[in-house]
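Entry 14. Structure prediction run on the chain below.
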Amino acid sequence: MNKILLRCTIAAALGGLLFGYDTVIINGAMLDLVKYFQLSPAIQGWTVSSALVGCILGTLFISKPCDKYGAKLMLQLLAIMFFASSVGCALAMTISVFIAFRFIGGLAIGSASVLCPVYISEISPPKHRGVLAATFQLAIVVGILLSLLSNYFLLNIGNHNWRWMLFSGAVPAIAFFLMLMVIRKSPRWLVKKGLLEEAKKNIEELSSHEIDTEQTIIEIQESIHTERAGKRINVFKKPYRKIIFIGIFVGIFNQLTGIGVVFYYSSQIFSIAGFSNSSSMAQSVILGATNLIFTLIAMAIIDKVGRKKILLFGQMGMVVVLGLFGYGLLTGNIAGYWLVALLVAYIAFFASSQGVVVWVLLSEMFPNIIRARGASIGSFANWVVSASLNFFFPIVIALLGTTQAAQQLGMSYAFIFLAAVTLIGFIYLKKYIIETKGKTLEQIEKEVLF
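Output returned:
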């Protein structure tokens, strides 16, 4: 693995870091945003979910401009959008302006979630592809932790601390832009554009001349032909309809575990549970650190234990923990730091199962000819559910009143609901997901279609 390949991978992975950083930075800022702009529960939900709506649109519409202009130029545009979003949110004088810039950030996040992993896979030689592809998921988790740490350290700097929290995202955005200036263009994109000599040069430099360049060009051309043929297929007709719907529900049940709610609202969740603002923020950092540790553990064991076993173990663990958290808030029988311990356990179960496995499944479970479209549809379903849950969460917890006791009651019902749908997810995944560990993509294709 040479310096050029590493530099290009790290540059693209910074898009994943910004993905995690910009989505979760709202967590710490929200406590003061609500007071500063006098937000109703509905507007509070829209403030969080506006970025996720941007994500949905970003994933839908980034492919065509990327095909036309290439990943390098489009990623540079995304870096500018990340920077503009951070600065615009930090300087916003009205909630409408704030939401507009958060939406722009969402467009960048959604686009990066598609472009960055695709770019990394396209520049990676086969023997390094698995490790390098994992850097994007790891970068997202690191970005989440860094945003929570940033929130914690900026909490007590004054009345406008939330502005500095949001402005902090401009720093990694600048680093992202500068790193992108020295990356190589994707060989696959160059082949699509007929620039074969430049494609050969990049393949040789990225692989240190360790692979057959001519054979790689032929394989890319065949892959492009397969991809174009796949675009003419109606994926909602037999024999692809069943696996497409399974992919959709894989994406849906991933978000119905409530992971977005916990990471976007953890400071408020802890605050409603009775903790001070500084304690709430510190506990959110613990959640972020737990997420990173158990993501690394999952990445280390996924090929040994198997996707389905890890997924079902984590899913059932989350059912128990979410149910206990809701029960504790409802009855008062579980309180204080036991509630913190339950959420830490919840993050551990999620990160070691759904957090890693769902994206591996979406990249493996579909037949070759529709793989890109199938994964895209599953991801789209994931974003839609995420946006919906995070919009309705503050509305639900305020339904019974705005006192702390009323909000605790509303939040208890929300977590019991999440436990119930996570249990339904366990039953569905146990019935319909096949184990893909140790199988070729061709073997998986035969199992899911026949």
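The chain has a mean pLDDT of 88.
Filed with the rest of this week's runs.
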